[in-house]
From TrEMBL:
It comes from the Eukaryota. It is found in: Endomembrane system; Golgi apparatus membrane. Involved in the fatty acid remodeling steps of GPI-anchor maturation where the unsaturated acyl chain at sn-2 of inositol phosphate is replaced by a saturated stearoyl chain. May catalyze the first step of the fatty acid remodeling, by removing the unsaturated acyl chain at sn-2 of inositol phosphate, generating a lyso-GPI intermediate. The fatty acid remodeling steps is critical for the integration of GPI-APs into lipid rafts. This is Post-GPI attachment to proteins factor 3. It is a multi-pass membrane protein. Keywords: Golgi apparatus, GPI-anchor biosynthesis, Membrane, Signal, Transmembrane, Transmembrane helix. Its main location: membrane. Belongs to the PGAP3 family. GO terms for molecular function: hydrolase activity, acting on ester bonds. One of its GO terms (cellular component) is endoplasmic reticulum membrane. It comes from Mesocricetus auratus (Golden hamster). GO terms for biological process: GPI anchor biosynthetic process. Residues 1-23 form the signal peptide.
Length: 203
């Protein structure tokens, strides 16, 4: 029974991944994107789009197709709300209003603030803990791994691409793995420094 349930769950997840999200499966959304690309993303129309595109948008990697997908996402959301339906997800994410070139402003700012907090605590730790401490280098390594993860989280929420998504997930996984390693090292360090252990060593 458990094996059958697991297979059904796996099939459901696989089908869900194959189909995508509700919003980007909508014919209205797909037709809108197709028409927008045909109208704006080739020939002289593309040159016109690039001439009007702000420099910060092009530097952040926003293409004509990306702009079409963004605009059509909100067209589809408007139709959903007009019909009294809930706002759907698009490509596995909830729709967010873009600010300048930042795709998810609130999440990007939150990740940036978490990174700054990690940097402040890293500086405090380095100033107050001597380098000869048993856990010093392990904790310093963990701090840099965390800073790297918050950096890529900020980049990912600023501009969602295949590369930034992978870097965000991989670096977040590295923080989890290093947390486990840190706990194991600390357990061993505390055990080796305990009076019981020292007594056994001197006997």
């Amino acid at each position: 029974m458990a094996e059958r349930t697991a297979r059904l769950l796996l099939l459901t997840v696989t089908v869900g991944l194959a189909w995508g999200s509700q919003g980007d499966r909508e014919p209205v959304y797909r037709d809108c994107v197709l028409r927008c690309e045909e109208r704006n993303c080739s020939g002289d129309a593309l040159k016109h789009f690039r001439s009007l595109q702000p420099i910060y948008m092009s530097l952040a990697g926003w293409t004509c197709r990306d702009d079409c997908k963004y605009e059509c996402m909100w067209v589809t959301v408007g139709l959903y709300l007009q019909e009294g339906h809930r706002v759907p997800q698009f490509h596995g994410k909830w729709p967010f209003s873009r600010f300048l070139f930042i795709q998810e402003p609130a999440s990007a700012v939150a990740s940036l603030l978490n990174g700054l907090a990690s940097l402040v605590m890293l500086r405090r730790y380095r100033a107050s803990v001597p380098a000869s401490s048993p856990m010093y280098h392990t904790c310093m390594a963990f701090a840099w791994v965390s800073l790297n993860a918050w950096f890529w989280s900020t980049v990912f929420h600023t501009r969602d691409t295949d590369l930034t998504e992978k870097m965000d997930y991989f670096c977040a996984s590295a923080v989890i793995l290093h947390s486990i390693y840190l706990c194991c090292v600390r357990e061993r360090t505390v055990a080796s420094a305990s009076p019981h252990h020292l007594g056994r060593g001197n006997s």
